[in-house]
Each structure stands twice: as C-alpha cells, then as structure tokens.
Amino acid sequence: MSKSENKVASYAIIGFGNIGKALAKAFARNGIDVSVATTHNPESFASDAAAIGPEITPATLAEAVKANVIFLAVRFESHPDVAKALPTWQGKTIVDVTNAYGVSPEELGGQPSSKFVAQAFTGGKLVKGFNHLVAAILDQDPAVHGGRRVVFLASDDDGAAAEIGALAENLGFSPIKLGGLSEGGLLVQAHGNTWGKLIFQDLIKFD
Ligand SMILES: NC(=O)c1ccc[n+]([C@@H]2O[C@H](COP(=O)([O-])OP(=O)(O)OC[C@H]3O[C@@H](n4cnc5c(N)ncnc54)[C@H](OP(=O)(O)O)[C@@H]3O)[C@@H](O)[C@H]2O)c1
C-alpha cells in the first residue's frame, strides 16, 4: 500500500445547498468530521454549519479540496468550476452526487454523465452515488423500519467503490455496488422528466 493510500481519510462536501446539507447531517449524525465549501466566504454559512454540528467545518473551496474524499454536491453545470480548483485530482476520490437534469445526450458526447464529470476531474477516482435520494430523504436517519436506506454506487475504480461503500456504511446506509460508470453509472443517471418519479423511491434494505 502506498503512503497516500495509508493515510486517514479526510472528507469534504462541495456545495452546501439541499444535498450538501443533507450529507453534512449524515456526517454529523455519525460523528465524522467533514469540511463544507461553496463559492462564498465560509463565514457566510458558518451558522448553518454550526446548526448541524461541530463536525461540520466551513471552508473555502481551496481548503476543502485538500480532503482526499470529496462529495460533489453542486448543480451539474457547476462541476467544471469545481474541477478548476486543482490542477490534478490525483489521489482524490470524487463522489459525484449530481443529476444532469436537462442536459442532452449530445452535450454529454453520448457518455454517461458520470463519465463526463470524471473527465473534468483529471487523475481523480470517481464514484457515482447518493444521487437517487431526494434531499428531504437523504437528510434523515437512514435506519428506518428495521432496515437501512440503500445508496447505489458505481465506479471504474474498484478500490474507490470499496472506500465509498465503507464510508456509506459508516454513515448508516446500505451500499449497493452497480459496477462501472458505463453500466451502473448509467443506471442511476437522470433521464428526462420521468426519471425522478421512477428512481426517487423509498428503497430500504433489510439485513
Ligand atoms: N435536491 C435534491 O433533492 C437532489 C437529489 C439528488 C441529487 N441532487 C443533485 O445534487 C446537486 C446539488 O443539488 P441541490 O439541490 O443541493 O442544489 P442547490 O441547493 O442549488 O445547492 C448547490 C450548492 O452548490 C454550491 N456551488 C455552486 N457552484 C459552486 C462552485 N463552483 N464551487 C463550490 N460550490 C458551488 C452552491 O453554493 P453558492 O452558489 O452559494 O456558492 C450551493 O451551496 C445537483 O447536481 C442535483 O441534481 C439533488
């Protein structure tokens, strides 16, 4: 194992809107520290972060991307701006929570949206996931009705999928790995106007 693989994971969430806050609550609920960043000065959202818990550290984008696991919780169209924050994403795992609503297959060059995002984060390992739960559900404790809410994960890097699978479990979810981005990523990708109704389901796994 290389030195970088051996280090303790550090986490950041880029975007502190509906989904960023829902993810931050999951970290706080489980006592896991995470940095959060937007385009604004961290002081401007410090009280929102403090309301979630002491685990949540407001940060600048430049500070937040020092983490080795980075949740991308911005609108799809904002991902290139986040990608510009580092010249290379080598050694980083990016969790792509975006849904490419209203983006045509032509604009994606016929690729799954997750592959399109992965190309922007040069050198990084991308895991598509956590994107099928609406913020109001992701927000809540995933332990419900004696089971755990499912999160779907897809990646072309098995190590990164395993790393985020373990994190998902630590956050209280039940991860289901769907394979690579071309197969699994495509399965959990936003499609047109009906996709949300089909996929935003109350999926729970019973052990
Ligand atoms: N809402 C849902 O139920 C849901 C469910 C599943 C997946 N998703 C996906 O999750 C993503 C986020 O959705 P949302 O509803 O949370 O959106 P949102 O409420 O509009 O939040 C977007 C966040 O991204 C930040 N942001 C924008 N550009 C940025 C940049 N260049 N650098 C850093 N931060 C930036 C915004 O902060 P400032 O503009 O203040 O800087 C804001 O905090 C979307 O891709 C969406 O499709 C949403």
Describe the structure.
The chain is of the alpha/beta class and 207 residues long. It has ten helices and ten strands. Helix content is 33%, strand content 20%. Bound molecules: NADP nicotinamide-adenine-dinucleotide phosphate. NADP nicotinamide-adenine-dinucleotide phosphate (NAP) binds next to helix 2 and helix 5.
Produce the secondary structure layout.
Layout: H1 3-6, E1 11-14, H2 18-29, E2 34-37, H3 46-52, E3 56-59, H4 61-64, E4 69-72, H5 79-83, E5 93-96, H6 113-120, E6 125-129, H7 135-138, E7 143-144, E8 147-155, H8 158-170, E9 174-177, H9 181-187, H10 195-199, E10 204-205
Parallel strand pairs: 1-2, 1-4, 2-3, 4-5, 5-6, 8-9
Antiparallel strand pairs: 6-8, 7-8, 8-10
The structure holds NADP nicotinamide-adenine-dinucleotide phosphate.
Residues 14-20, 37-40, 61, 73-76, 78, 81-82, 97-99, 101, 131, 134-135 line the site of NADP nicotinamide-adenine-dinucleotide phosphate.
